[in-house]
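[Solved] Which block belongs to which protein?

Original post:
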Amino acid sequence: MQTRIRSRSGWAIALLVLSGLAAPAPAPGGDAASVAAKGAAPTHGIAMFGDPAYPADFTHFEYANPDAPKGGLMRQAVTGTFDSFHPYIVKGKSASGIDLIYDTLMTSSKDESSTQYGLLAETIETPDDRSWVAFTLRESARWHDGRPVGVDDVIWTFNTLREKGVPMFRFYYASVERVEKAGQRRVKFHFKPGDNRELPWILGQLPILPKHYWEGRNFEETTLEPPLGSGPYQIGSFEAGRYVSYERRADYWGADLPVNRGHYNFDTLRYEYYRDRDVAVEALKGDAYDFHVEFTASKWAMAYDVSDVREGRLIKERISHTRHPGMQSFVFNLRRAKFRDRRVREALAYALDFEWLNKNIFYDEYERIRSYFQNTEFAAHGLPSPAELAILEPYRGRIPAEVFTSEYQPPKTDGSGKIRANLRRATELFAEAGWKIIDGKLENVETGESMAFELLLHDPNFERIALPFKKNLERIGVDLIVRTVDTSQFRMRLDTYDFDMVGSRSNPVGSPGNEQREMWSSAAAEQEGGRNLGGVADPVIDELVELVVSASDLEELIARSRALDRVLQWNFYQIPEWYSSNDRLVYWDRFSRPKIDPSRMFTIATWWYDEAKAARLEAARGGGG
């Protein structure tokens, strides 16, 4: 979830099913009789389907080492800049790692697809009809100034984020009717009528902010004043746009919670900012920072042929994953009239030659992405199942006919770079839409408008991918302007939808749900700073999204998500690009990590500084020079 807010447990949204485990006594301040009558009981965790893997008395996640030593420094690199420590508003560019200073009500495990366990909340309770959810806060939860985290903080945070925060919160929590104090440490959220079974789950992901800190401050303005938090780290030193360091709180209230044991082991986490990825890679090889995730296939193949890698001092490692990679694509801005015809969007997709790019630029590192739920059971494959057809039939005539007759596949080539057949098909589609090549330029036969548009990028490395696309388009009379801007301008132009086409990657989604509203709904299309980048505004899409949100079980969620996927695919709102089923890591050999890696996603939150390795590395490098 292009979302700029991500908690330590992630903003992957999932459908909630009550855990069904044996429950502790009703929460302080609660009404035991009313809780029991409605089928709710306090429990330590919730799972998307079935029960949480960890019982109520678990001591730590299996992929964490509860005896990991504390200490040392971990340095990472970030490309771009920052000008704020406020990640919850549209304005500004917030610093990387800022989520480390805040705790959420619940936190996710990384060896289960969508399961949460209590963090600030000691227990969660929700009835069978999912008409409300209640959280009981831990008595030990504290802000960094020593004051307790209270129900008033939760209520104030929820109302403030929904009223003044980034649009995501308004869409995620639109179905919450009200929130109330239901006991000394118990907070209860009441939901509007209708099926939205994941609401208890996503409310568990709510980051809680200190009401007393923000009183007297303007929540809607950026700030470089280090804010007050309750998490494992606090802001230490920083220089806006250059670096920020976070210092581990030795008195962190939640250090011994089962969900935190073996986590947050570094005394200092430092983020170094670079304007250019090429410079950042060279800085890594010079030991200017410690840990790097390599997103560029050519760099992975060519940039690390150095003695430190060959001799094992600088580790180059692949870690395979089974998660949804997110949708990486070129996004059409449907607010531009020239892109509103589906045939135009389909035609332009024929000019992207993935097979040639993969062979000549990507070193065969990637696979073609074709689904908005790629690599998950929610992705549409083959022809619609009977369950999907039951969903789609009422929309026949209002959605592309291919939804019923064909499996969507992006245009393919033989990788030779000779794509005449694809370009011929593109020209045919343009002609059907009223565009013809006149004197070498593609023009609209009615208006005389030329097919010219700008592709907006923020990473110069992506130009080597965009330029072959541009060259192919030129052969059919399309004038593509590739424009790369700095990250601040890129963010501003995305927030105000000031682009024709943009290179984008949406954040991974564990299970489709409320986040689909912000990505596709008509209401989100003109919401500044939102995630409906393409401006999709289709009543059919709106209804399909609501069907996904209201799914009552896994089978229903799969059918509805696949139906939505098919309609999105055949509308050609985006040109799908590629993904990798591996994380590519490069890091200096001064760290250790648990023997078990989480199956869904690696996390350096469980790594630790290994003094023996660090000493050997420094000796091998002649004192670190």
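(Second protein starts here: sequence line, then its structure tokens.)
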Amino acid sequence: MPSDCEIAQSTPMQPITRIAASLGLNDDEIELYGPYKAKVPLSVFSRLSDTPSGKLILVTAMTPTPAGEGKTTTTIGLGQALSKLGKRACVAIREPSLGPCFGIKGGAAGGGRSQVVPMEDINLHFTGDIHAVTAAHNLLAAMLDNHLHFGNALGIDPRAVLWRRVLDMNDRALRNVVLGLGGRINGVPRESGFDITVSSEIMAVLCLAESIVDLKERLSRMVVAFSLDGKPITAGDLKAAGALAVLLREALKPNLVQCIEGTPAFVHGGPFANIAHGCNSVLATKMAMHLADYVVTEAGFGADLGAEKFFNIKCRSAGLSPAMAVVVASVRALKMHGGVPKERLGMPDVAAVELGMPNLLKHCEIVRTFGVPLVVAVNRFPGDTQEELDAVLTHCEKAGVRAAISDVHARGGEGGLALAEAVLDSLKKPARFRLLYDADMHIRSKIGVIASEIYGADRVVYTPEADAQIRRLEALELDRVPICVAKTQYSLSDNAALLGRPSNFVITVRDLKVSAGAGFIVAYTGNVTTMPALPRHPAAEGMDVDADGVVTGLF
């Protein structure tokens, strides 16, 4: 079978002006980035203000495994299938981070016959949004260090600087660095480090902001350090918000592209799915909902991380009310949760599929906690047997969950028709969307609800560092916001080794950090890194470009 890159390159694309017209956008309402990409200015909202919103469909998944689930592929394939059924559909997803594309992950534009195109552009520099976030983040870092160098009028404690630098590349050597060496002219020496750009709070702010005014207000609120007397120092205190907004003004506009089959797709924003909310921008989602009757979006990782944050953070902030959710599963992932090692996944094993089902059903329970109807998409992989697929369908039926086989990787929209029909049937049921907790609750209470209701933990324990941070945040009145838990994506617990549906476990919160601009508190559990590393044999080793500019090896 051809690679994803080869499939994308062999697919004729429509001019982006035609894609925009299919959504009802006028020629003067798009800003072209070549023939196949465009940005849509925010002024479009003025014309669309009285337009009714389409139905918002969230695609989430069971707990991720190295075997693959296919969440983005399913999102795109479902959008294409809805279009095939004559529905006015649109896809809204995150744009990929550059670093992981060269590491182990490969591309992040879907797969097979369900991709967004131009795939190479989207996976590489695209329209420069992530680079703009890099520049804005590092400008703020430079202004902070410049303030320290020129007298430190704000009384910043150099040992309490929170704002590190970022780079959109996997580079373990930059995780911890020392700044300001080489004498007084080169600044104040202190320990710091680099994170990957998509983990920057600025990326989270960009994706939650709903206007340039909102963007500047959120940027101004970002806490970058603490003073010697323990008071928060913000980007506004450093008079940096205006300059950051200047760098981000173009990045704020949603990007419009297309799926392989011509279904419109907004690909915009890419906040880290662990320490942020892991969803595409609010602006792109709302724009799509004004322009289409059905909008298919996704959230990072499984329902315990992605869907929970989509509901409790993004929907709360933006006033969104999702109509339903799709939970993606695969036979391969179920077998891994049933105890089968990756190297033996090609061997038929119905018993292992059944042993892995509790994980999938737990994620269905999580979605139902929010009052949202759901459908399970069983993403077909080559080598899946009919007996294995039937086992998934049977167990879902016994649990009262509707499920459909999805073959969108191999067959595009045609392979997603059964899933699309199941989704349309489920949309006839009224959604009674509700949030999990009140943002005004105490920090421990909010974390406790997430740990018990979403993860299934027995209790939560806090390190002395976490206890101290909670007291500080409450004293500073920075605590009345949602919680964004940073934990491993590979388990419902905070221990990646606990597969399936673990029980009798404890969640340990080791630290907390306020993202005041984004409007949430990050609670760190386990060992979550914010600067990924390259594997022994990174994907970059197999990439090339020929004399005609044709890229190979990009997934």
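Accepted answer:
You had them paired correctly. Confirming on the second one: The chain has a mean pLDDT of 95.
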